[in-house]
Amino acid sequence: MKTENPNREPTTENLESKYRTVLFDIDGTLVDSNEAHAQAWVNAFEEAGLTIDLEKIRRAIGMGGDKLMPIVSRIEENSPLGQSIARRRREIFVNDLLPRVQPFPDAARLVTALKERGYTMVAASSAKKNELSRLLKIAGADGQLDAATSSDDAENSKPDPDIIQVALERARTSPAEAVMIGDTPYDIAAAARAGVQTIAFRCGGWRDENLKGAIAIYDGPWDLCEHLDSSPLSTC
Fold this sequence. Notes:
Radius of gyration: 17 Å
Structural class: alpha/beta
CATH superfamily of the largest domain: HAD superfamily/HAD-like
Strand content: 5-15%
Largest sheet: 7 strands, mixed
């Protein structure tokens, strides 16, 4: 999903913080996949005889599927129908839509730049493990990150803090030394509950007012790359 206005200036605050670790959300942050996820849910619900508004699902992308499903349909994921829909959603996304997903501009460049600056980098994604490995390849980040955490590694998905806490453990770092890079309010909420600050990207489709709580907001990887030396990640 493209940002509404690519010419907007980045917003920043509290630039004096110093971090050692970067936690990356992947969907909507490094990879332009939010629309594909939303469409996969719509198609899976339709096959089950349910019509769910695409925009309603878009607003829930970034949560784990276990939270998204009851919010948009009042169906619990662990119910027989919920399990069937979730399974079909994964098939549609992985087989039909994921092959067409593209990275955001400069996604790989951003990861490389932060690696060169000495940051420990960990994926902290709500994606399933098998989806995450393919998304990292699309982003050009496979083999670049120090570790990866998926929804399979946590009991509770975003906006609960579990995924962030596991990522911190794998990075062997404290919340104060880490910063999350994400694109949704759910990334910001999950990170905050784990004591971690967030840099937000607009490229996932959210407005600045929805990204309140982020210490800085950029259009996407390309924008942060352009302003890296004046960003919260200017030093390590």
